[in-house]
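Complex 310.
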Amino acid sequence: MAVFLNTFLPDSDASSKLQVVDEGLVKLSAESESSPYKLIQKADIKAILKIRKPFAHKGTYGHALIIAGALKTMGAALLCAKGCLYGGAGLTTVSVPESGLNALNTVLPEAMYLGRSNLIKIKSLKKYNAFAIGPGLGKLFESVCIIEELVVLKVPVVVDADALNILSTREDLLMHLAKDSIFTPHLKEFDNLFGKHKTWWERLQTARIMAKKLGSVIVLKNQYTFIVDQQGDVMINPTGNPAMAQGGMGDVLTGLITAYIAQGYSAKAAAILGCYFHGKAGDELAESHYNITASQLAEQIPKTVKGFLK
Ligand SMILES: NC(=O)C1=CN([C@@H]2O[C@H](COP(=O)(O)OP(=O)(O)OC[C@H]3O[C@@H](n4cnc5c(N)ncnc54)[C@H](OP(=O)(O)O)[C@@H]3O)[C@@H](O)[C@H]2O)[C@@H](O)CC1
Ligand SMILES: Nc1ncnc2c1ncn2[C@@H]1O[C@H](COP(=O)(O)OP(=O)(O)O)[C@@H](O)[C@H]1O
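Predicted structure with NPW bound:
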């Protein structure tokens, strides 16, 4: 029986009730036209996920740089870094204000530190192959300057939280960010960035247009998160649950997606894997927990991925 898009939306409208959602990312029948809306299946994840290789070392799985945190929101940076470490990046470096250095060394001894002043030395950024910016960053002048540097560097970036809010007032930067970047807004951040929307259907149409225009992936977060690729196709993530509705959960997702970029996945694949395993870790924890903290979820990720492969 056909499934329609309205099943995955929290509100009601006439158009989404008519829009069929395909099961899986691969078109199965040559006869029917494929829908731009696709529900991610377990088989899709199996096809995308690469098994860790014998003789692999930390260099095999990339080096991620996370630019996040401010005095009162250092936790967001730590959670993002935690998502990246537990997502399997070979190396994770975190650029937080110096006031966060002790916390970083104490909470995440596996992570390295890069001072904010070093961020403007482009040469020092060449060793990283995955970049994330935004969780808890704040919207101070320094944060704007860092985004300007990333635009000059022309590297794809995972953009979240405060970095999204900065871009909402700087269309020049938004339009010049490297293609294959990944934007991870929740509803409010999305509307800040692209304008107010009355319905989720309208919001989704804007996401499709903007993902094409930017040549980037938009991860529009909700109970069912929509991953919109550079062609404007929409992949619907089936995992996740209300036990996950606690602060910091999106920060972990940003770190996890960045870990997959570091490991060599494309922007689209990294977004799909990140959303799927983030939600699946939450689903597994929710079997025995009424609610879940973001730290708890990050720590569950390697177990979830291992269990998935069995
Ligand atoms: N430990 C730390 O350091 C943490 C630091 N953090 C960092 O702090 C920074 C600012 O984060 P923030 O939570 O203050 O602002 P933001 O996320 O814009 O929410 C503002 C309001 O928007 C709404 N809203 C949000 N989501 C929605 C949704 N899905 N659907 C609908 N509405 C939604 C909701 O408004 P309401 O509906 O309650 O009126 C909410 O109150 C940011 O950089 C972040 O990374 C956090 O990650 C927490 C842990
Ligand atoms: N009810 C829910 N069902 C499924 N996923 C949820 C639910 N509530 C929150 N999440 C997930 O948690 C994350 C929340 O992200 P975000 O709002 O950016 O949080 P924060 O800014 O606190 O880190 C998203 O990935 C979202 O899909």
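The mean pLDDT is 96.
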